[in-house]
Amino acid sequence: MEVDWEKFLQSYFVDLDLLLVEVAYEQWLVMQPDRELDQRDRTAQRNELLSKARGFLERVRTELGGEARIIVGEKVVSSEALFEEMDRMKRAEKMSYKIDPDQAIVTTWNTFLYELIHSLQVHQLDQVCAVIPTTPLWSDGEMMKTIQCFLEEDLNVSETARKLYIHRNTLLYRLEKIREEIGYDLRVFDDAMMVKLMQFILRRKADVAR
């Protein structure tokens, strides 16, 4: 289905004076002047930007039945800062796409892990991969989708089951199977972060091997 993205974006940000720039096919730069944002501290600014990104993503999923990839940048106060932030957005998109392609929302202020893994040399990747459990799980699309959604929903079982359109018990069964396969329980925050890190490293290794 062909989507008029300019119209769709304007309908979502209906109360805001937006500047929309189509940088490539189905790729849009959205710039929002917001004086209220200037009065908030950096954490509040970031939370507000993330909230708008999540709201837009949910609308794409519910109204269009599709997906979007959103790169969120920081507030800028000058044209020079704008170009610098756009460069950071491009780098964040490029690195995250290779390491975390299923992540729908990426921010320029939270790319440390991408930068770290992207900087690993081949021999370092080999050393790290050697201690990652070898299992068909890593190539199981359904299980990888389950892990991704569970992490996106902050380890919330009920919300993850709802987003995946499966019964809560089905999700619990999958989580237990993952624990048995790799020895990490996704319901435990530290274990969940380890599994996410393993995914990133394996994807980076596959990308380097191409």
Task: Provide the descriptors you would attach to this structure in a database record.
two-stranded parallel ribbon, two-stranded antiparallel sheet, Arc Repressor Mutant, subunit A, 210 residues, 8% strand, 10 helices, Homeodomain-like_sf
Protein model, in words:
- The protein has 210 residues and is mostly helical.
- It has two domains: 5-110, Alpha-Beta Plaits, CATH 3.30.70; 120-209, Orthogonal Bundle (Arc Repressor Mutant, subunit A).
- It is 60% helix and 8% strand.
- The chain contains ten helices and four strands, in the order αββααβαβαααααα.
- A hairpin with a 2-residue loop joins β1 and β2.
- α5 (112-118) crosses α10 (189-209) and α8 (157-164) crosses α9.
